[in-house]
Design goal:
Distance between the termini: 39 Å
Number of strands: 19
Order of helices and strands: HEHHHEHEHEEEEEEHEEEEEEEEEE
Radius of gyration: 23 Å
CATH class of the largest domain: Alpha Beta
Strand order of the largest sheet: 1-19-18-9-8-7-10
Number of domains: 2
CATH architecture of the largest domain: 2-Layer Sandwich
CATH superfamily of the largest domain: Antithrombin, subunit I, domain 2
């Protein structure tokens, strides 16, 4: 992925700043927003230009080129589909320099027929995400002069799949529920580690996909907020906090949801990592204008004046800005998508002769996740799991334990 490290840091920085503002179980994607903000910054003027540049994390005069490089880099990733679309009224004249910076074929037309335009935008969103997002999260009215949208969808299959089984937490928010649990065992202990962060310890488990798209599961101490846990995950990616890897964990309670046990066995075996977690299927809906300062849209939303002279001589303001997102984590793999739019046991007596070590990671209370491109450490999606998938009695279960 040929993207500057400064851009990766800027996008991950937006993830870290967004995380403390989310509430409840949800999913969001900073890469679904960032290039659109950068393109808007490139065409903005005055205070709106400065605010958008601050949100993007790059100077405004570099934002457009960085957005184009970023989108090109995303297009090169296996398992990831991305697109940018622009629709304008026929009467809106765009600055050629700004329009030429958009991907080829991105420019469409708003007909003025709200129903037809709505259907066309919804179709675009569904097609660009493989049906994971059904509609465009923007309202089109007779005042809408321009719609700028981005779509992002990722899919990966686990290198080592999970086995499905009932998960019945004894305590905590999920106590007394029977959840669709996922279990697997491996001899690769460095997939798990405990990070010492500013707000507490966080257990990080890396679940590797077959196309370098991975999911990092994050379980913090019980007093930590979702934003603190997710931001800690971004800090771990940026190597800004110390992490004790699985092979070096002490015996006993080693971190949140993490225990290292040594026990006698009838046969020798190397140390293993046992993982138990919950399947989840999340959606998220975000009104970016509710967090206008975070996204640099405070001035840009003021419709008493135009703020994008580099886009068009016609006065434009951001009238709506929303993102719809989803994420699904199962036994075989993971998929996530976002569309963002701006408008503007045995028998017998055992011979226990050997001591064996097991690292047990258990995610049986609310936890966070980051979907990450392995080589660049770009966070593609992030979320917080509060309502995992229930176990249904009619489902076939493969316990698969050995």
């Amino acid at each position: 992925m040929g993207v500057a490290k400064a851009t990766i840091r800027a996008v991950n920085g937006l993830t870290a700043r967004w995380a403390p503002t989310v509430e409840g179980g949800t999913v969001f994607s900073a890469p679904g927003v960032w290039p659109l903000l950068a393109l808007l910054a490139d065409g903005a003027g005055g205070t709106a230009r400065d605010e958008l540049a601050d949100a993007v994390g790059l100077p405004a005069d570099r934002a457009g080129a960085a957005a184009r490089e970023f989108l090109s880099g995303l297009a090169a990733l296996r398992g990831l589909d991305s697109a940018v679309g622009l629709w304008t009224k026929r009467t809106l004249e765009l600055r050629e320099a700004w329009r030429a910076g958009l991907p080829a074929g991105a420019h469409g037309v708003l007909t003025g027929d709200a129903g037809a335009d709505r259907a066309a935008l919804d179709t675009w969103a569904a097609q660009r995400t493989g049906g994971l997002i059904k509609g465009m999260p923007v309202q089109v009215t007779d005042r809408t002069e321009l719609v700028l949208a981005g779509a992002l969808a990722m899919r990966t299959r686990w290198l080592r799949p999970f086995h499905e089984e009932p998960l019945c937490p004894e305590t905590g928010p999920w106590g007394e529920r029977t959840l669709l649990g996922l279990w697997r065992r491996s001899e690769v202990l460095d997939r798990v580690g405990v990070a010492d962060t500013a707000h507490g310890f966080v257990t990080e488990l890396k679940v590797l996909g077959d196309n370098a798209l991975d999911v990092h599961l994050l379980l913090g101490e019980e007093h930590m907020t979702p934003g603190q846990v997710l931001a800690a995950g971004v800090d771990v990616l940026g190597r800004r906090c110390p992490v004790v890897p699985g092979p070096r964990l002490p015996f006993g309670e080693a971190g949140p949801g993490l225990r290292v046990v040594r026990e006698r066995s009838t046969r020798p075996r190397p140390p293993v990592l046992d993982v138990t977690t919950a399947a989840y299927d999340l959606t998220g809906s975000h009104d970016l204008l509710e967090r206008h300062a975070l996204f640099g849209l405070t001035t840009a939303r003021d419709d008493r004046a135009g703020h994008f002279p580099g886009v068009s001589a016609f006065p434009l303001a951001v009238g709506s800005a929303e993102q719809a997102a989803m994420a699904r984590f199962g036994a075989l793999g993971f998929e996530a998508a976002a569309v963002t739019a701006f408008g503007a046991a045995g028998a017998g007596i055992p011979q226990l002769r050997w001591l064996v070590t097991t690292v047990e990671a258990r995610y049986d209370r609310p936890f966070g996740f980051l979907a990450v491109h392995r080589h660049t450490r770009l966070v593609l999606a992030a979320g917080w799991v509060t309502d995992p998938e229930p176990f249904r009695e009619d489902e076939e279960v493969d316990l698969g334990r050995t």
